[in-house]
Structures are given as C-alpha cells and as structure tokens.
Write a structure and sequence with these properties.
Number of helices of chain B: 18
Number of helices of chain A: 21
Pfam families (chain B): ABC_membrane, ABC_tran
Membrane topology (chain B): Multi-pass membrane protein
Distance between the termini of chain A: 51 Å
Subcellular location (chain B): Cell membrane
Radius of gyration of chain A: 34 Å
CATH topology of the largest domain in chain B: ABC transporter transmembrane region fold
Number of domains of chain A: 3
GO molecular function, one term (chain B): ATP hydrolysis activity
Oligomer: heterodimer
Helix content of chain B: 55-70%
CATH architecture of the largest domain in chain B: Up-down Bundle
CATH class of the largest domain in chain A: Alpha Beta
Largest interface: A-B, 163 and 161 residues
Number of strands of chain A: 12
CATH superfamily of the largest domain in chain B: ABC transporter type 1, transmembrane domain
CATH superfamily of the largest domain in chain A: P-loop containing nucleotide triphosphate hydrolases
Structural class of chain A: alpha/beta
Helix content of chain A: 55-70%
Strand content of chain A: 5-15%
Protein name (chain B): Multidrug ABC transporter ATP-binding protein
Number of strands of chain B: 12
CATH class of the largest domain in chain B: Mainly Alpha
Chain lengths: 586, 558
Amino acid sequence: MTERALLPIATAAQTWTAVRGLLRPRWPLALLAVAVLTAGTAVGLVTIRLLGHIVDLVAAGRPADAVNGPVVALVLVAVGQAVAAGCGLTLVARLGEGMLADLRERFIDRALGLPLDQIEDAGAGDLTSRVTNDVTVIATAVRSALPELARSMLTIALTAVGLAVLDWRFLIAALLAAPIQIHTVRWYSGRALPLYARQRVSVGALQQQLQETVGGERTIRSLRLQDQHQELVRVRSLDAVDWTMRGIRVLTQFYARLNVAEFVGLSAVLVAGFLLVRSGSATIGTATVAALYFHSLFAPINTALGLVDDAQAAAASLVRLVGVAGLPPASTSDAIGPAAATVAVEQVDHAYRSGRPVLSGVSLDVAAGERVALVGASGAGKTTLAGLVAGIRRPTAGVVRLGGHKIEDLTPAAVRRSVVILTQEVYVFAGPLADDLRLARPDATDDELRTALSRVGAGDWLTALPAGLDTVVGDGGHRLTVTQAQQVALARLVLVDPPIAVLDEATAEAGSAGARQLEAAVEEALTGRTGIVVAHRLTQAVTADRVVVLDAGRVLESGTHADLAARPNGHYATLWQAWSHHRPPA
Amino acid sequence: MPRERRPGRTLLRRAIAGQARRVGISSVLSAAHQGGEALVPILIGVIIDQAVGTGTIGDLVVWIAVLGAAFVVLSASFQFGTRTGEYAVERAAHTLRLELTARILHPRGSAETGRLPGALVNVATGDAQRVGMVNLALPLAVAAFSGVVVGAIALLRMSVPLGLLVLIGAPVLLLAAHWLGKPLQRRSESEQEYAAQAAGVAADLVAGLRVLKGIGAESSAARRYRRISRESLTATQRAATAKSWHDSTLLGLTGVFLAIVALVGGRLAASGQITIGELVAAVGLAQFLLGPLALVAWANGEFAQARASADRIAAVLSTAPRTPGGDENQGPVRGHLRLTGVESAGLRGLTLDVEPGELLGVVLADQVGATTLAELLGRTRDPDRGTVELDGRPLHTLDPVAVRTAVLVAEHDADLFEGTLHDNVSLGRASADAVKTALDEVARTLPDDVDGVIAARGHSLSGGQRQRVALARSLAADPPVLVLHDPTTAVDSVTEQRIAAGIRELRRGRTTVLLTTSPSLLSVADRVVFLADGTVRASGTHADLTRDDDRYRSVVLS
C-alpha cells in the first residue's frame, strides 16, 4: 500500500495557539466562569466544617439548641452553593459551546476550500471522519467532560486547602494516596489508549459489515449469500464484543487500583486524627471533618481521573481539527474583468502517481460557444482532461488557459465564474430542494428555481413533489431517482449560468431510457455556452461541433462527427460502427 | 394490524433470560459492592467513636483492618460484578444483532420496504446495545436496593426517628429533583437533537464536496453551514443552561436535606440518645444513600430506553414476509418460464413464455414494470394476480431459495462486497475456470489482478467496472435460468458490444432473459418481446421490431 498524505495535523504549539485564539475574545467570560465556580466550590466546603462544628458542640456537652445556628448556616451554604454552581456551569457551557462553534465553522470553511487533489490523496475518509467523529468527540468533551472536570478539579484543590487549614499534617496523610493514583493513571493510559483505539477499529468494522450486509440485502438474497453474510456479521460482532470486554477489564482494574489509594489515604487521615487528638493538637470534631473531607474526595477524584482518556481522545481529535481549521482562508477576492468563454489546453500531462501518466501532451482549443465531445474507452483520460479544464485538478506539465489567462494565475472564484463542471458523482444535498439549488445561486427567487428546473425537464416531477421546492430531499428525505438527481445537477448549472460548462458522463448511470431524457436536458442546459462533454453515448458526439477521441492519454483524432465517422479504419469510425450497427440509418 | 400492545416486552424478557446466570452473579456481586460502599461511612463513624475519641492503638489497628477488609470486598465485587454484567450486555446485544441480520436477510424478504438501510443498521447496533444494557441496569438496580437496605438497617439500629427521617427524606428528595428536572430535561433533549443537525449538515456538505467544487459553491455552502451552526449554538446553549440549573437545584436540595439530618442528629446526640460516632455515620449515610437511590433512577431510565429500543427491534423482527407460503423444492430444471395473466406494479395482464434454452430480450419503456418483472422471476415478490411458472410449477408453491437456485436475477444496481475480485465473482462456489472465462468475456479491462481487494460495496471501482464485475459474477454462477436487468448501462459501446457476444456464447442452451433497452444486447437475443402499458405489444427479432414498430424504435434507438 502506498503511504497516504493525510490532511494536515496540527502540532501541540499550533493547537495551543488556536485554543488561545478562540479564548481571546471571550476572556471576560472565562474569568467570570472560573471565579463563580471557585466561589461555589469554596462555599460547599464550609458544609463539612459546619458538621465538624456540630460534632464539637455535642462533644463539649452543649445544649441541643446550640446546633441551630450551624444548621441555619448549612441551609444558607446549600443555597449559595447551588446558585453559584448553576451560574458557573451555564457560563462554562457558553464558553465551551461558543468556542466549539467557532472552531467547527472555521474547519468547514477551510475544508471546503481544500484542493480536490489534496483531499483525494488523503482519502475521502480522512476529511469525513474529521468532520463527523472528531467534531463529535470534541463536542462531547465540551458538553460533559469539561464542566465535570472543572468542578472535580476545583473540589479536589479546595478540599486539599481545607485539609491543610485544619492541620497541615492531615494534608500530608491524605497525600499518601497520590503516588498510587499517579501510578494508576500512568498504568491505565499506557494500556487503555491502544486498547480503545483497537476497540474503535473493531466496532467500526462491525458497523461497516452491517452497512454492507444490510445495504446489499437484495443482492445477497438473489445470490443466496445469506449464510456467508450471517457468518461475517457473527465474526465481526464477536470481535467487537471481545475488544469491548478487554477495555472493560482494564477499566475495572483501574478503579480497583484507585480503591487501594482511597483505603491508604483514608486510613492515614484517620491515624493522623488519632495521633493529633491524643496529643491534644486537634479536637474530635476536627478529626471528623478531616475524615469526611477525604471521604468526600472519592467521587471527584474518580471522576477527574476517569476523564483522562476522554481528555486524551479530545486532544487527539483537536489536533486533527486545528490542522485543517488553522490553514489560511481561501482567497475570496472577486474576479476582475469579464468571464472567459474560450479554453486552451497546451501540451498538458497529468499523472495521479508518478510514472503512470494518465494524459500525455494533450492540446485542445475550444472556441467560444463551441461544443466539443470527448470520446474514448474507460481509462482513456476523458475525466482527467475534463477536471483540468475546470481547474479542479492541476496539470503535471503544460498549461490550461481560460480566455487567454493561465488557470493557475486566476483565483478560484475567477475560474468558477468562467467554467463549471458537473462531475460523475450525483449528489443531492440533504434538506429542502430549494436550499440545494440555492447553493448554486444564493439569491435566486423561487420562480427562478422553478424556471431552472423546468428548463431541464424537471418541471413535471417538481409539481408532483409533496411540498414542491420545500420538499426535503437527499439523505433521510424524499428519494430522487438518478435521473431526477442529475436534472437537479443540470438545474444548478443553469442557475450558475457560466460561459463554459464541462459535463462528465452526466448521463451515464441513469439507465438507457433515463439517458435519453437527460440528453434533452443537457442540450437545454448547454444552450448559449461553450460546452465540453465527456460523451458516454455517442449520440452526444453526433450533435457536437467537434469530436475529440482520446486513447491511453493522447488525442488520437479530432474533427466533426461526419468526418471522423467516414475515415476508413479510424478509431472513431470503429466506435461509431459498433454503436450504430444495430440501428437503422437515421 | 392487531399486534401485541408492547411487542418489545417479550423481547426484553428474552434478552434478560438469555443471560440469566450472568445477570444473577452480577447482581450478587454488585450488591456486595454497594454494601461495602455503605460500610465505609459507617466505619468512619465507628473509628472516630471507638479509636480516635477514646480508644487505644490496638483498637485503631483492629478497626483499620476491618476498614481494609471492607475495601477488599467492595473492590473485588465491583471488578467482577461489573465485568460479568457488561459481558451479559454485550452477549445479549450480539444475539439480537444476529437475529436482526437473519431477519433482514431472510429469503422471503420483508413486506415493509420503507426502512432505509442506515436506519436498520442503527437498530442492529444502537438499539441492540440499549436492549442489552438492561443486563447491567438490572444488577445495578438490585445492588442499589441492597445498599439502601444496608444503610436503612444501620440507621434504624442507631435511632428510629433519625433512620426514618433519612429513609423517607432521601427518596422524597430524589422524587422532587426528578419532578423539578422533568420539564428541563425534556427541553434539553429536544434542543440537543436540534443541535445534532449542525453535525449532519457538515457531513452532508463534505460528502458532496466534489459537486460543490464543480459549481464553485464552496463559499455559499460555508455560509449556509455558518448559519446552521449558529442556530445550533443557540439551541445547545439553551439546553446547557437548563441542564446546569437542573443539576444545581439537586445540589441545593441535597444540602438542605443534610442540614435537616444534622439538625435532628445533632439534637439527638446532644441529648445523649446517640453517640458522636453515630451522628457522623448518619450524616455520612444520608449523603451515601443518595448514590444508590440515584442509581435506581438511572436504571429506570435505562429500562425506559431499552423498552423503546426493544419495540423497534421487535417491529423489524415481526415484519410479515413479502413472499409467504410455498416450501416445495424444485427438481432438475429445464428452464421453461411462463407468465400467465400477471398483474403487478407496472404489469397489466402479462402473459409470456420463455422457452428452455432461449435467449430472450424483454423491452419495457417503464422502469417500474421492468423492476417488478425481475422481482417476480426471482420470487422476491409474488404477483397480485396471475401466475409465474417454472417448468410448469407455480413459483408461489416453491421455496424462494429453491427458486433462486434455479433462477438467478441480476439487478442493474447489484452490490459488490468487500473482498478480492476473485471472491466477488466466484462467491466461493464457481470454479476457477468459470471465473476466468466470465471475467475474460466481460471484464477484460478490469484492475490488474484478481486477488486485488475491492473496497466495501465496490466503491473502489468505477460504475462501469462495478457493473462488469457483477455481470461476470452472474455468468460464473452459471444458473439454469439467468435474468439480467440492464447489465451494461455504465459500459462504453465497444465494450458493450463485446459483452453481448460473450453473453450469447456463455449462455448457449441455457435460458436467459435480458431486460434491457440496449440495442447491442437485444441484437444477440433469439427473440425480443416488447412490452407497452404492462402487456406484450409485439414480439420478434430485434431487426424485425426495429423495422416494423415505430414505438419500439423510439424506445430502443435514439
């Protein structure tokens, strides 16, 4: 397997800079949040002091009414603590969610601006997993781990202060637990992280198997592959169970080791109390407070240490998000001068992998308003040439010009004002149909959208849609047929209204009947434009002004359909004969 | 359809019963853990009383040893109880996953076709897991209950009024918190859901990135995402605020409750009815008991979720088969197909004969009718009226698997599966020779080696390559009857021509139906039947029909 060039991953320093950058505009909010939470936690610690005070009052043999005062104070403390916690957590959420929203927006902005070559080199999965998994991991961390961690750490820190205030020797006793805890965390993160990574792989494989099996249900049924697939699911599922259980084993061992720390610390505090009370330097009440303080630390310590892997996972995701979000913004400067309508390809080479050229020395001039059909077998380089003309790929050598300007000298916006490409991929964006179309022209009115759709022959099914333009389409919505989805793509082209249009096998997968319907739509969408069409069906070549035949990355023939079809033993003539063999002369 | 009111109930019971031994062991161990946790504050009180206050070093050592023993018990029982419980969860989920897979892949199919694959996968993962969770929720609920009982006994032994105060107060407190939190929680959940939209839109835009780049819509897409992200931010912040106040209200109520316990306990201690150690223990227990009680509430929530998930699973498992009835086996196959008066989606009274060994082209202008016909021939669907027969036996009397052993229907959008090219074509059945021949005929320009791995669902291949591999697979299987539905829509015309000849050659003497409008394919057929408006309009060779029938010409040629 060749090494993939993954999308950028930020260094620790870059990540810190990015986090500071997100924090900077919000520092008053951050300070306020920390202050309020600290105040609330500090107030909470008074509770145990008051309980100790009650113990002392009782031990001193004071009358029952003496406890009333501390009890009233307890109620006040409870209310104060609750209000502070409510405010503090709200502030933390505002802070964290705001930063998260900024980060994800910047990420999407930069991700959409990445060159296609770079995304493909990294594998489409890289970007997708960043935008889904990594964003989710960080959102979860911000939503649950961050506030919990903040509260737990504060409680631990302030309780330690509280112990020291009682008597510094209590704090020393309590700290006996710390080495065990530190060792446990080290042991755990060394073991758990690789294990969890392996577990995620295994759960991912199960998920993928289920998608393949459930999605391929009809094929499986007709080929009678039920047993094989049932077995595949069983094996993958068992593997996922196995890795999950390994993770759980480590997790339970982690908490068991923390139990040891709890026991050691608690015993030490009790022994310290025993010695201090005997030597007269502490009251029973103080010893009680110290023991209760330590007991009240069990939960926050477990919480804080248990968040170690959440924190590490979030950090791993963060560097992947910042890696993309930290890229410089794509230039948004608008194009100057009129949009170009001519294309010139000069001696262009292209190779996806060095040593395996896909195009070699291809030249092609297209005049304004001309219609050129690219013809050739699969793998001849049609799609690559189309991508080069549209500026979504860069040639390895040679120059592509739009209206005389080198394409690499133009801003992406300028390129796109001149040329639009409809790729092989048919994709309908999830959401109302109108929103999908407005990606092409954000300020289009509903009428303009309808006109665009009916121009490409989609008027009929548009009126049949349950909610017209507002019908939710795409993933999870109303399912459009392949033909309809391609009509949507053509309608987007009509809305962008560029002088040059490149169409790449836009009719390929619609089935024969759909293909003919689409050809009419393509005709309509190309009216008044310079058109470069990757012709899958030769009917598209017949209607073109010029046919360019590609083979193994080179231009083999170029001319009108009539000329080429008549050329004896010509490549195109052979193709045409095969195509028209069973058709009567028109 | 009349059904059991909560079909999920039985399923839930079955999930627990299937793991009864593990759930039992986990319950006992978790109870021991809770008991140990309850003992800790009690022992702190005892040590303050017996050792710190008045005792000797000897007393201290003894009681610390007892504390150590409590920790050993609680720690060990936690470890093994949790592991056993989690294993029961995973096993139950695994069993449900397999049942669901078996149901989804059942040869008789499913009468309900509304479910998207993604939703079904969610049922087999998320819902199965949530149902499995009852096997952990149940032991923990049992354990929490035991913890409450241990605490109650300790408290009541110290003082009946103090014990009753704590035992009644703690649940009242939790109920109050629950009641207060309910509207907040509902709001928070609905807003969380809304917030998830931002993630969905982001993934959708990235998935369609190529399309966006092609039309230069990157910046309008980014603007749209920004708008949705801001809306989602407002919603999450509202949800987070609601949750923060819910949590802090619980915190405040707990504090007030402790104050009341301290008040009553302090007065009892001051009047000498309980010792100082008992006062310490009572305060500690009041705090501790909130834990197990909250655990009960959590378990209750898990059960509610599990019931909803179980209903969804049961709904999938109980869907009616699409092709019920008929379980006879088909003997040796001659390959004679006959449709008589078939009425179904897109077909109106279709009567059609396919002779044994014939290569028949069937042309339907209408995609719906073509799909229906393909489904009828493989018995993934039964006709509304009329019969489909194979060698004189109605398909609806035959077992669907038997039908598909005789008749292989290859849909135009058939899936490939993860594995090598060779495995995809041979399916572990066809001989190496058959695979080689089939690939030679249709797939000469495919990726270099047959041992190369095809990614999940064939997405590493182009549309044309996928189609050719799928076609090679059907040909290599060499079934007595083969139905090919639009096998070459994504293939260039020269290749299509060659494939047509290959099909002709490989299927010589075997019944083959080509459902297509491609002239290259139709020209190699022995006979072509042209269907219009759901019934036979004309029949003859491709050349005849092209010559004689205008409508045929307009459908097939352009």
